[in-house]
Amino acid sequence: MADTLTITDNRTGKKYEIPIQDNSIRAMDLRQIKVNPDDFGMLSYDPAFMNTAACRSRITFIDGDRGILMYRGYPIEQLAEHSDYLETAYLLLFGELPTSAQMDQWTQQITRHTMLHENIKKFLEGFRYDAHPMGMFLSAVGALSTFHPDARNIFDPASRQLQTIRLIAKVPSIAAYIFRHTIGRPYVLPDNELSFAGNFLNMLFRMTEPRYKSHPVLERALDVLFILHADHEQNCSTSAMRGIGSSHVDPYSAMAGAAAALYGPLHGGANEAVLRMLTEIGSVQNIPGFIKRVKGGEGRLMGFGHRVYKSYDPRAKIIKRTADEVFEVTGRNPLLDIALELERIALEDEYFVTRRLYPNVDFYSGLIYQAMGFPVTMFPVLFAIPRTAGWIAQWEEMLLDPEQKIARPKQIYIGQKRRDYIPPEKRRP
Ligand code: CMC
Questions:
Q1: Which of 11, 238, 336, 425 is found 20 to 30 A from 322 (Cα to Cα)?
Q2: Is 362 a catalytic residue?
Q3: CB 301 less than 6 A from any atom of ligand 1
Q4: Binding site membership of 194 for ligand 1 (Cβ less than 6 Å)
């Protein structure tokens, strides 16, 4: 016998058998629950999607209680140890790890599309030098749709493949141009002989040397950070990507919206907020006072807590190890002591323990970025570069899912009932 949920409606005494699949019921099955035949039917109310699955997905698995994260079934720890970002992006997008021949072709395709149209440079030059990099980034990604109007053919697999390659290849170039614009240095062209992370570092930091060579430890650390940030199932920005994409707009426009969602301090802007918080705390002696204020409801301990993880974020564990390797090269970030002490106190404090608040991916990543020479405003952009792979994989899965339609949540209207227009002279304040 199939699993069902029996619901008795006390208003009518009627019983309903609702099928259960994958430990969930379909919200549409509630619609049959009515008092009168002309009722709309029962709705489920779930602000902020605390308990609603909006899709069936094969891409990323998270077990928040046990601190497990897997891309296409591969544990994040193994990918961080053995893979690189481009291979991980391939895995997310195509479902399997590439063979050597597939990887060679993929790498070649990405490196061939790293250049930006000269007008993108002009577009970026229009921004003030102190414009926030994330504002510039999401604008430039949106602008790409006007350079590649063929992207509107979203149901053509070849077009989707081309936009996927373009987006993954071009986001580091956009990010690097933004960085150089901010600091007033000339833009550096991509170098196709370098790795994905190595080329990005080249476009960021190259000066007058004929050939830029990044430090292998820093290059690998950046690549590991990219792997860790590549996807995270139905978070705010991915839901934005799927939601916007469900209107069948091109992927550049959808991704501009996803990047905007990532910009917020509760999401990908948290790494920037962590660094600002650590700088504001200033020294270990000020931590107890800061924790007291957080517990009193004055602000949050940024980089802590997660909607899904109710234990240590597995990405944060890997980042902590990576930070040690980076600091061996760059010297220790003086804010690390504050971060470590904050973590120590928070993990023992009843407020954080009872709410199951642990360090998330953003708690230590900013310390690495800062040690590598990035200004804090670049941090959310460094999150967006690798998340591009996840956004596109999720967008494509949504497009090809026959159950998906334009995203359109319902509401429960609690406003005024019908009333007649009041002329201005009869209105009261
Ligand atoms: N500092 C202090 N208290 C917190 C924090 C925090 N960082 N996070 C949650 N709480 C408290 C919150 O006040 C609430 O307490 P109470 O039950 O007394 O009202 C309780 O914990 C549950 O919090 P919530 O806001 O209902 O949880 P949520 O699932 O809606 O929010 C979150 C998740 C990530 C937005 C939140 O934990 C937060 O604001 N963290 C700080 C920002 C941050 O680090 N964001 C990065 C997330 S990881 C990267 C990414 O994927 O974006």
A1: 238
A2: yes
A3: yes
A4: no
Separation between Cα atoms, residue 392 and residue 386, nearest integer Å: 11
Distance CA 291, CA 352 (A): 10
Residue 338: the pLDDT is 95
The pTM assigned to this predicted structure is 0.94
Among residues 223, 231, 306, 313, the one annotated as catalytic is 306
**Pairing state between β 68-71 and 74-75:** antiparallel
Q: Residue 308's Cα: distance from chain center in Å?
A: 14
pLDDT at position 77 is 97
Compute φ and ψ for 103, nearest 5 degrees.
-65, -40
pLDDT given at position 2? 83
Across the 429 residues of the chain, what is the mean pLDDT of every consecutive 10-residue run?
93 97 97 96 96 97 96 98 98 98 98 96 95 98 97 98 98 98 95 96 95 95 97 98 98 98 93 93 95 95 93 92 94 91 94 94 92 94 98 98 97 97 96
The candidate with the shortest Cα–Cα distance to 384, out of 367, 396, 369, is: 369
Of all helices (H) and strands (E), which one includes residue 226? helix 216-229
Q: Is the CB of 117 under 6 A from ligand 1?
A: no
The pair of three-digit structure tokens given for residue 100, joined into one six-digit string? 């050597």
Task: Based on the residue annotation, tell me whether 306 is a catalytic residue of this protein.
Answer: yes
Q: Is 132 a catalytic residue?
A: no
The C-alpha atoms of residue 148 and residue 163 are separated, in whole angstroms, by 8
292 lines ligand 1 (CB under 6 A): no
Give 138 Cα–ligand 1 centroid separation in angstroms: 25
d(CA 96, CA 10): 50
DSSP string computed for 34-98: -SSTTS-------GGGSS------SSEEEETTTTEEEETTEEHHHHHHH--HHHHHHHHHHSSPP
